[in-house]
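Async update (no meeting this week)

Hi team, since we skipped the sync, here's where things stand on the single-chain job. The sequence we agreed to prioritize is pasted below, unchanged from the tracker. I ran it this morning and attached the output directly underneath so nobody has to dig for it. Comments welcome in thread, and please keep replies under the output.
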Amino acid sequence: MKQLYISDSKTFKISRSKIDLFIDCPQCFYLDRKLGVSRPSGPPFTLNSAVDHLLKKEFDIHRAKNKAHPLMSEYKIKAVPFSHKNLNDWRNNFKGIQYHHPESNFLIFGAIDDVWINDSKELHIVDYKATSKAGEVELTDAKYHDAYRRQMEIYQWLFRKNDFKVSNTGYFVYANGQKDREAFDAKLEFDVKIIPYQGKDDWIESVIMKIKKCLDSDSIPPSSEICEFCFYRKSVEAAF
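Output:
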């Protein structure tokens, strides 16, 4: 098996999602990034992608006018969508906002949804989310919400490393599909809410160096105790 990662070789790309994979399960990360054996992929979230695409188009209309979106005004956010020549690259899943981390020789990157700029010329990192649940959407202590928080913090860190002035306050634009309408009528209606989040990126550097140590090792690290993929793999092995 040809290794993807070889120690002290050329710069190695690590995406924001792969950092989160390492946190979720070091063994799955090692198999993926070093040995090229990825977790099975699930079905694409095409409805979420559609919401993401339409929100970008909607905020881009106001970006072109250098005006706040009505939702931003409703939540008393004194900012406007940020215009920058690299915005399309920052949104591209294969490019994103990038930073070469010299200590690890990793090229860290992540694709953002949006950036706003406030009156103090600070950037607010913005991420779009979509769901369908009863009641108000909010950030909880659920595991996937922890991943959302880390996602925001990595984006904030990447922009800071690119010499932008970045506010600790990021925003989740959360679209909640409503299921209490009388009929479908060939349309799905959403309530859209902005949730502020105070990010802290002081954990990122140490995790990057742990990733470096993990990839430099010739030993497969232990799996996470709660990793469903590792549990399934070990159960299959035990069955034979």
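Quick observations from my side:
The chain has one domain: 12-239.
The two ends are 23 Å apart (CA to CA).
Reply here if anything looks off.
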